[in-house]
Amino acid sequence: MDDFILRALAAGLILTLMTGPLGCFMVWRRLSYFGDTLAHGALLGIALSLLVGLATQLSVFLVAAGIAATLTELERRRQLSSDALLGLMSHSTLALGVVAIALMGPNQINLESLLFGDLLLVNAGDLMLMGGTAIAVLGVLLVLWRPLIAATLNNELAAAEGLHPRASQFCLTLMIAAVIAVSIKLVGALLITAMLIIPAAVARGLSKSPEQMALFATAIGMLSVLVGISGSWFADTPTGPSVVLGALLLFLASQVYQAILQRRESQ
After folding, report:
1. Backbone dihedral region for residue 183 (phi beyond 0: left; psi -120 to 50: alpha; all else: beta)
2. Which of 4, 22, 150, 199 is most buried by a 10 A CB count?
3. Residue whose C-alpha is closest to residue 225's, from 253, 246, 204, 241
């Protein structure tokens, strides 16, 4: 098997180690649109990296973290509803990023690769960065797992128990920003939220505890990567979208499975 295929597989599997548990929190907290907002802001981060010469991943992370902090502050003021704020920020940052990249010249960067990614372009340096990010994200998740679960169940109760739900929530947004920063090259700004949400949505119907759901979501994400890259190789289709379609097929299969179980139980 060619080296670039092996690197693509490794990158996809490392990515799912992060998207599995983080996606569960996004499903539990209904943060799907929030993930889209950060992902769309990644284009603005790439434009900034070209303008000032920062590393792409660092620039994307800084912009995503800035968007998360801005949303947190605007939500605290309660002048607009959360969905209105997310819609405003999501489409504004996407439009601003596309325009900024276009103004820099058509030869500066491939916009299509930013939107849809290309797993097959991953190199050894990308793998090292992703591996280090995965270790950091999983380490923080282990430390903050109880506060995050408590805040997800009852924010006021978590605060009363001294678990600092606001701080843990902000750490969660920073971890999501970090995942988006290192994965923009893999699946693109338009597809990364799907990799966070779809495996977690599949796992939700199959799990009996938060820990089990996180493990199932990770396993389902890994299977999606294997199915997507295999389909891309044999059918000569774009790799990032193929991985997302692999996740979608697993979601549809899980729905059929649950429908069969419910019918059997009702008989």
Report:
1. alpha
2. 199
3. 246
Query: 119: which 2 tokens?
Result: 């797993």
Long-range CB pairs of 130-138, under 8 A, 24+ apart, other chains included: 130/11, 130/14, 130/15, 130/182, 130/183, 131/14, 133/18, 133/178, 133/179, 133/181, 133/182, 134/14, 134/15, 134/17, 134/18, 136/178, 137/18, 137/22, 137/175, 137/178, 137/179, 138/17, 138/18, 138/21
Prediction pTM value? 0.85
pLDDT digits (tens, 9 = 90+) for 21-32: 999 998 888 887
Query: Cα 79–155–29 angle (5° rounding)?
Result: 75
Instruction: Return the domain boundaries, the chain.
Output: 3-189
Q: Which residue is associated with the tokens 């988006």?
A: 180
pLDDT digit string (tens) for 153-173? 777 776 776 667 778 888 888
Q: Are 115 and 190 in contact (CB under 8 A)?
A: yes
Give the Cα separation of 231 and 254 in Å (integer). 20
For the domain made up of 3-189, the CATH class stated in words is mainly alpha
Q: Whole-number mean pLDDT of the chain? A: 83
Provide the 10 A C-beta neighbour count for residue 83. 11
Q: Which two tokens stand for residue 184?
A: 């923009």
Q: What distance in Å separates the CA atoms of residue 19 and residue 203, rounded to the nearest whole number?
A: 12
